[in-house]
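User: Hi! I have a protein structure encoded as tokens and I'd like to know what sequence might fold into it. I'm fairly new to this, so please keep things simple.
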């Protein structure tokens, strides 16, 4: 039986020299390995641990509960957001009302790219939407995550260089290892029926699909927001409001026209 990765997070109640050493020694006596340690948000410390069995973790939890120097806030089998929190020193923020929605600001682009790259590495179908105002870094983050995940990305519709709408793929581009990127506004405003047929074909592939402006995309298709596995919101700062009227206007006027490739 393989070893299991766990996440331990605690708040320091009494900060004194040697505290981390005591916890490390305790883990060593229980034959639990420390993979990574880092500070996370709100003055807490997070650890990724490797345990041979659940009994080791049960014993650890009982002992930690007797310590007055720390307060355990999380002790669970590690999740993606736990691993990223330890790696980056901060948590991914989820929407309180819709747990599939995760929020980032521009200063957290490194965390966002790492998060998407981990999603890209997972096998099978996954539909990811990304909301945000123009020039906040949406497309660049999607592409950077593809590079980090060692995946090839394909623009089905985009405004990255010039407005592009594709109506067919060539041999090899239907690979399930590719990341398919769709701009919901460009597709809605400029696409023909061949383009929408291509999107339907891509949606049937067990692959990663990333849709910029998902709220606009669902207005023009039979899909709904409920079909998305994740909705990512990217803002310049925490107070920025994403308004689609202005986004559509700027997107419509952007660039010098369409690429003729496959249009």
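Assistant: Happy to help. Inverse folding works backwards from shape to sequence: for each of the 263 positions I chose a residue that suits the local structure. Here it is:
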């Amino acid at each position: 039986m393989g070893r299991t990765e766990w996440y331990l997070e605690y708040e320091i109640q009494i900060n004194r020299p040697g505290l981390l050493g005591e916890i490390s020694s305790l883990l060593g006596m229980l034959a639990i390995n420390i993979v990574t340690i880092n500070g996370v948000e709100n003055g807490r410390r997070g650890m990724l641990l490797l345990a041979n069995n659940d009994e080791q973790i049960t014993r650890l939890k009982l002992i930690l509960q007797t310590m007055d120097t720390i307060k355990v806030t999380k002790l669970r089998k590690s999740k993606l957001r736990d691993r990223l929190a330890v790696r980056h020193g901060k948590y991914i923020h989820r929407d309180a009302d819709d747990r599939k929605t995760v929020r980032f600001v521009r200063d957290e682009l490194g965390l966002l790219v790492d998060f998407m790259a981990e999603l890209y590495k997972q096998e099978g179908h996954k539909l990811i939407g990304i909301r945000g105002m123009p020039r906040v870094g949406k497309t660049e983050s999607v592409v950077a995550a593809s590079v980090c995940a060692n995946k090839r990305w394909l623009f089905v519709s985009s405004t990255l260089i010039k407005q592009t709408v594709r109506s067919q793929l060539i041999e090899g581009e239907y690979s399930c290892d590719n990341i398919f990127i769709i701009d919901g506004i460009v597709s809605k405003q400029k696409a023909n029926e061949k383009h929408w047929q291509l999107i339907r074909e891509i949606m049937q592939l067990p692959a990663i699909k990333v849709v910029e402006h998902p709220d606009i995309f669902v207005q023009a298709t039979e899909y709904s927001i409920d079909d998305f596995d994740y909705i990512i919101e990217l803002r310049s700062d925490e107070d920025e409001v994403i308004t689609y009227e202005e986004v559509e206007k700027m997107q419509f006027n952007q660039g010098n026209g369409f690429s003729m490739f496959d249009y």
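A useful reference point when you look it over: Residues 109-120 form the longest helix (12 residues). Feel free to ask if any position seems puzzling.
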